[in-house]
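User: Okay, second chain of the day. Same drill as before: sequence in, structure tokens out.
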Amino acid sequence: MDIILDNWFLRKLFLLRKIYLSRTSMRHYSQYGEDDSTYQHLASIHRGFFVDVGCFHPVKYSNTYRWYRKGWRGVNIDLDPIKIEAFKMVRGKDENLVYAISKEGTGELRDCYSFGRYSLMSTLDKEFAEEQRRLGKRYVVRKVPVASLDYVLDNSRFSGRKIDLLNVDAEGYDLSVLESLSFEKYSPFLILVELHQHTIEKVMESDLYKFLVGKSYDLVNWTGPTLVFKRKAA
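Assistant: Same drill. Structure tokens below.
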């Protein structure tokens, strides 16, 4: 039991501190400046549509907040309910949803293991969670719905709308998230996705790179661990 998270008033105070007292860059909101490095590709789009999977924080380290401020709207998805509560407090014009994204699923509940009140690490993998527990890290277990990205978007108010910016940060499950999306239906224009490789050769050997190239995307930028893919012109 966590007295802060379980008490409505204390939880709101905790979230206000987390949202507004966390440091952010004066130049950009993204952790590695992704919203600067992708600006040239997106600046001409008026009131675009984004999807942010593994959205984490409504402002700090966000690859979509800059566009929200410019009038874009979108769907923010995270498997940790406390993060989505923060999004609802700050970004109420978006659709903010608690889901774990998988290749398949229509909202069935599964156990989710979270480490800390506003953790960088949440997982559906019980073995991984137990390994972390043996290392001294405590977790809490919550039930979360599991669904494909197609299912989540099809049941949102943005159903069928082409995606201008897709951001994926799913802690090693990024390819599974992408595989759960119908590219024919949602056709993302720009995709930001993390891949922790150190050379272009390793990137090009990865299944993620090969998957997106096979979907007619070009790698147009690389900022920190974030790869930026752009859909080829028709």
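The CA atoms of residues 41 and 190 lie 8 Å apart.

User: Thanks, on to the next one.
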